[in-house]
Amino acid sequence: MKKKGLLKLVVLTSLVAVLAIALPLMSGCFGKPEAAPPEAAPPEAAPPVVEPQVLKFGLIGPLTGSWAVIGLPYYRSLELWVDKVNAEGGVEIGGETYVLEAHGYDDKGYIPAEALKSAKRGVLEDGVQYFHSSSVSTLVEAVAPFLQEHDALLVTHGAGAGLRAEWPHVIAALCAWPQCQAQLVNYVAENNPEIKKAALTTGDSPFASDDMIWIRSAMRSNDWDIVFQEVYSPDTIDFYPLVTSMLATEPDVIDLGSTVPSTAAAILEAGNSLGYTGYWIGNNFDVDVVTTRVPYEYMDGKTVGFQCKLDIPDVVGPVVYGLYEEYQSRWPGEFAAEGFAPIFTFTLVLEGMKEAGSVDPVKVWEAIYDVPVFEHPYLGEARWGGHEIYGCDHLLMTPWYVGNVTGGRFTAVDIYPFYEWYQENVDIIVEEHEAFGRTTYR
After folding, report:
1. How far apart are CA 341 and CA 346, in angstroms?
2. Fewer CB within 10 Å, N or C, the chain?
3. 386 backbone φψ class: left, alpha, beta (φ>0; ψ -120 to 50)
4. Cis ω for the linkage preceding 342 (within 30 of 0)
5. How far apart, in whole angstroms, are the C-alpha atoms of residue 404 and residue 281?
6. CATH code assigned to 53-176+314-398
7. φ and ψ at 228, to 5 degrees?
8. H helix or E strand, kind and range, residue 323
C-alpha cells in the first residue's frame, strides 16, 4: 500500500510539473488573452416617424340635380389635384410637410341656404378652412359672413357682386365665369371683324344678370349693335318663337350666355331650321349632345364657348394636358374646362401658403394680395384689379380658355387675356354694372 501511494504522488507531481512548463508555452502560441470587452452601449432609439399634417380643401357646388353636369367636374378635378400633389410627396410649408384632403359639399343647384349649410358643415364638422365655390353673387353673400367669422378663405373662379373690401377672405382667383363671357366675345370679334349686329339670350337664373353685364360690356367695346336681348324661362321647351324673334333682327352672332348643352342643342336646332348661318357663342356646346339635334357641319368653325376640352398640348401646356388625360381616363366623357377651376384657384392658395410660410388663412390671403403680378403656372401672367366695380382689387385678372367647335370636337384653341381689355374699357364695364343696379366705385 505504501508503494502504491508513493507512485501516485510521483505521477501527480510529474503532471503538475508538465503543466507548469506547457501552459506558458501554449499561451505563447495563442497570444496574450485579450481583456474582456466592455459592455455594449444600448442601441440608440430610432427617431420617431413624423406623420405629415393634413390640409383640407372643400368644394361647394351643385353635386346633384340638373346643374350637377357642371358641379361634379369641379369636385372630381379637386380629387384629381389632391391625388397628384399627394403622389408627389405632399407640399412643404414653413418646414412642415402636408398632405391634402378633398371634401365635397352640395349646394343643390346654386341655392344660397344650401351653400351656407355646406360651409357650416365644412368648418364646424370637418375642420375645412379653404373653400372653392362659384362666383354667383347670392351664394357668396350667403356664406361670406360665416366664413369671415371663422377666418376661413373662399376662392371663386370669377367675380360677381360678392367681392367686397370688407371681405378680404373672398378672393376671385380666376377670370373664368362670368368674366370669360367677355373674353369669348372679344375672341370672336378679333377673328371676325365683319360682325356688326348681335343677339343675346340666356336662361332666367341667379346668374343671368352677371352673364348680361359682361357679354354686353364686350359687345359694346367692340362696337357691336345689340339688336336683341331676352331672358327665357328655364321651363321653355319650344324655342322656335324665341329664335324667330331673334332672327327677325338679322344678327351676325347669337350669344346664349350660360345656356346648358341640352338647351343649346334645342336653340341651335331652331336656328338651323330657320336658316340662320351666323356665329354662336355660349357656355357649353357639348358636341355629343348638340349633334343629336343638328349636324356637326352646322357648328364647325362658328361655335365658340369656354366649357371646352383641354386636349391640345400646344395650347394648354403639358401639365394641364396630363391632368386632362387623367381626368378622361377616370371619368370619360364628363369633362368641362371650367371644372378645372378648383385646381387653378387652390394652386394660387398653395403659392400663398409657401409665401407666408404658414397655413393660417389670414396670413395666406395677406401674402396673396402682396404679389401685384402673379405668374400663374398654367394660365400665364395675371394682375389684381376690379376696384372700380367692387371697391377692392380682389379679382385676379387671369387669361382663360376659349374653345371652338372644330375638327369634330369642342376644344381649347387659345388662352385669351382679360386685364388689358378691362383697363381699356372700364368706363363701359362700370356703366353696365350700374345699369343692372350694381354699386360701383369709380
Report:
1. 8
2. N
3. left
4. no
5. 9
6. 3.40.50.2300
7. -155, 135
8. helix 318-330
Q: Are 95 and 139 in contact (CB under 8 A)?
A: no
Cell of 103: 371634401
- Per the CB < 8 A criterion, the answer to whether 215 and 188 are in contact is no
- Dihedral, CA of residue 173, residue 117, residue 438 and residue 171, to nearest 10: -20
CB-based contact 71:61 (threshold 8 Å): yes
Amino acid identity for residue 149 in this structure: E
pLDDT, tens digit, 9 for 90 and up, residues 86-145: 999 999 999 999 999 999 999 999 999 999 999 999 999 999 999 999 999 999 999 999
Q: Name the β-bridge partners of 202.
A: 231
Helices (H) and strands (E) in the chain, counts: 17, 16
Residue in 155, 157, 154 with CA at minimum distance from that of residue 181: 157
The predicted-structure confidence for 198-245, as pLDDT tens digits, reads as follows 999 999 988 899 999 999 999 999 999 999 999 999 999 999 999 999
101 Cβ contact list (under 8 Å, min separation 6): 54, 55, 56, 57, 82
CA-wise closest residue to 264 among 248, 246, 287, 245: 287
Using CA of residue 95, residue 347, residue 138, residue 262, what is the dihedral sign? Answer: negative
Determine the distance from the C-alpha atom of residue 230 to the mean position of all C-alpha atoms in its chain, rounded to a whole number.
32
Q: What's the chain's length in residues?
A: 442
- How many angstroms separate the CA atoms of 424 and 420, rounded? 6
Top-level class of domain 179-305: alpha beta
Residue 22, H or E segment: helix 2-30
Start and end residues for every CATH 3.40.50.2300 domain found in the chain? 53-176+314-398, 179-305
CB-CB contact of 80 with 330 (8 Å):
yes
Residue type, 117: K
How many Å apart are CA 143 and CA 149, to the nearest integer? 10
